[in-house]
Write a structure and sequence with these properties.
Elements (H helix, E strand, L loop, with lengths): L20 E2 L9 E7 L6 E8 L5 E7 L4 H13 L10 H17 L1
Antiparallel strand pairs: 1-2, 2-3, 3-4
Protein name: Putative Zn ribbon-containing protein
Keywords: Zinc
Pfam family, one: Zn_ribbon_Elf1
Length: 109
């Protein structure tokens, strides 16, 4: 006589989260990160900042608040395929100079 089989207990699956790193449209390495910053006084939009650790691509885009990192990455890739990536591109020194100008402007008031 054989024994009765036991039911196997199923382990819950862990949810998969999207990766923080994306493939850079310029150099092809998987070092592109996308971060978000708040825009003062505007609750409907946020600033998306994309940086590549390999080729130092730096891109800023104003996007609606509902978009996630993957959506912003798709916008950047679309700009790259249309050869319009230079429209959102800024060097990091230019952005530092802009923030210094903003601080100087606030000091004059």
């Amino acid at each position: 006589m054989a024994r009765r089989r036991r039911k196997k207990s199923l382990k819950p699956k862990k949810p998969r989260h999207p990766s923080r790193y994306f493939q850079c449209p310029r150099c092809g390495s998987v070092t592109l990160t996308i971060d978000f910053a708040k825009i003062g006084g505007n609750e409907d939009e946020k600033m998306a900042i994309a940086k590549c650790g390999n080729c130092h691509l730096y891109c800023e885009l104003k996007v609606p608040r509902v978009l996630d990192r993957v959506d912003v990455y798709n916008k950047i890739v679309d700009l790259s395929y249309d050869n319009k990536l230079s429209e959102c591109e800024k060097t990091e020194s230019e952005t530092e100079a802009e923030t210094e100008e903003e601080v100087d402007d606030e000091g004059e008031i």
